Amino acid sequence: MAFTITMLSWSVLEYGHYMRMAGEYGHALQAIKWGTDYFIKAHPQPNILWGEVGDGGSDHYCWQRPEDMTTSRRAYHISESNPGSDLAGETAAAMAAASIVFRHSRPSYSKLLVAHAEQLFQFADTHRGRYDSSMKVARMYYASESGYNDELLWAAFWLYEATADERYINYAVDNAQNLGGTGWAMTEFSWDVKYAGLQVLATKILLQGRGSNAEVLKQYQSKAEFFMCACLQKNQDKNIGRTSGGLIYKRAWNNMQYVTSASFLMTVYSDYLSKSHQHLQCPTGQVGGNELLNMAKSQVDYILGNNPRGTSYMVGVGSNYPQKIHHRGASIVSYKVDSSFIACRMGYETWFSYGSADPNIHVGAVVGGPDENDNYADDRADFEQSEPATYNNAPLVGVLARMYGLSTTYRSQHSTPAASPLSRLYISHILTSSWNFEGRRYYRYEVNIKNNSPRMLQFLKLTVEGLKGPLWGLSKSGPATFAFPPWLKALAPQKSLVFVYIHQAPKATITVSTSVFD
């Protein structure tokens, strides 16, 4: 939630004038204040921050509307003896960024946010530790893989923006190396990994001629440029991947979060370069700021439907959008329509497996998105693809506001991504079940390959990377490669081949290496 509020605030700070033009500025501030009001309540003492309500295991055990929930929900906090520098640091960043948003419209509230942000930063820096070591219940669902160094720098930069206090920029300069700010060259920006974002923020300060020690800020800038060049695939062998349809692709679980966050950074960086009359220097040559903006725009176009499937991954937008998202409130009939109590497990029996479209359209929600082959399974059981998240939407708000300023629609005037030549094969790849056995968690995945072409598929070779267990339904043809099973010589048009695998790891990566049609 804190990352969501930070990104919403950054969006307003950069593109609030476009939001005013669209009549959405008030809604944006309302959303930010909803979050910061919550953070104020969650921070009752300087070194106490309540970070989680509920247990992921017991919460996921039930499928109910919020109105029907009776599950006991314990609250968890961090403190001096149980620190969480990453959680406190990100919350400090959120409150600092939001304080700038409210500086003129709510000056007293803005000062209150600054006070909380400064206390939280002091808490995070003085009592260091990962929040998921103190709140172990969070580790299963929101593990702090990157640690807390990035959040300390992220908070320092935002506090400098909020206060102009040189102590904070000096902190970011003095700790640039030992906290990784000038060391880590990143290919992702997310709620967990903030380095690319803080490096872009440092570059903004440098290009505006603010802050101390320009030499260190230039080192931050070099890492920001690494990220930008990687997004454009102009970084030699250190690029961010894309699907055949042109979508930034990082990993299977909720890939869209990486798309929207990268698009935001490309958008603001393009504007920073344009305003300072600078160019991006990539290993392959000099790049203009417009190329970054065009790349960001292509990602928005893809999200809103300009993709090989013609699917809008923002619910309620366009005529072809996800109908069965992994969301309790969307999938169960409204309390206003039927107030009958839905018990904990009853929701799974009645609504989770409900074959029809969601009774409630979750307008605006951005789901996890398609796989590496541009395929999407409209199945609420496939949470990796069909679950929406607030941190998917938050960075997109700023990008959409900027695009509104360009007076564009999702039908881009620029070149559109070419459809994948492998789109003749539709690949559905979903998690069907999971269970515990002898203290270990196992996952069963099912893959359906459908021949969408009018021709016979005579030969198929698949590459399966990251497979950690047995696979049924294919013949192994080499290291990490598989072919038709012995009982199948060819796949007729509109027919499907199904195989399954079980292992103790996230979804494997499946790609078509070779396909021969007759």
TrEMBL record:
Catalytic reactions of this protein: Endohydrolysis of (1->4)-beta-D-glucosidic linkages in cellulose, lichenin and cereal beta-D-glucans
EC number(s) recorded for this UniProt protein: 3.2.1.4
Keyword Signal appears in the UniProt entry: yes
First and last residue of the signal peptide: none
Compartment list: Secreted
Keywords: Carbohydrate metabolism, Cellulose degradation, Glycoprotein, Glycosidase, Hydrolase, Polysaccharide degradation, Secreted, Signal
A matching Pfam family: Glyco_hydro_9
Family label: Belongs to the glycosyl hydrolase 9 (cellulase E) family.
Protein name: Endoglucanase
Species this protein is from: Ceratopteris richardii (Triangle waterfern)
